[in-house]
Design brief:
about 160 residues, mainly alpha, 5 helices, about 70% helix, about 0% strand, globular
Length: about 160
């Protein structure tokens, strides 16, 4: 992987939109897997909206962190060090993504009560992911530009 556009831990240099986009897509993938799984589990167990959303958000963080955790462990970090890197790299990105995505779902009329078989459920969820991606990408660009967020991961590749 070409790291020439990434910042060092000190945060010097130029961060490209491509770098920020890759970091955001990485985050979105973990978030989407966790969130969809949480929604499916909560719906299948006939849970209400609040416990289902809590599970979905929790799993979004678990899957989001796990992608980074496994990547840096493959690079040779211990579990303890890898956890620190994952927390530093992904917390803000996942939090922004989940806040935006869940706000859109909550604010879409009928989406909270839609079933997995309803197009409204999937359109609100996917629309939320799309808007969250657009909002989170500049956040990641700003953080990487300061040697924070996903930039922390690249010190360990």
């Amino acid at each position: 992987m070409d790291h020439s556009t990434h910042h060092t831990a000190a945060g010097h240099g130029h961060t490209s939109w491509a770098t920020a986009t890759k970091a955001t897509l990485h985050c979105l993938t973990g978030c989407a897997i966790g969130e969809i799984l949480g929604m499916v589990i909560g719906t299948a167990l006939l849970w209400g909206n609040v416990p289902t959303m809590i599970l979905a958000i929790a799993l979004a963080f678990v899957f989001g962190y796990s992608f980074t955790l496994f990547a840096v462990m493959r690079a040779g970090l211990s579990l303890r060090a890898a956890i620190k890197v994952a927390l530093a790299a992904d917390t803000v990105s996942i939090a922004v993504m989940e806040l935006v995505d869940n706000a859109i779902i909550a604010l879409t009329p009928g989406a909270m009560d839609a079933h997995l078989s309803d197009g409204l459920f999937w359109s609100a969820l996917l629309g939320g992911f799309a808007v969250a991606f657009v909002i989170t990408t500049p956040v990641n660009k700003w953080m990487i530009g300061r040697g924070k967020g996903h930039a922390v991961v690249h010190a360990h590749h």
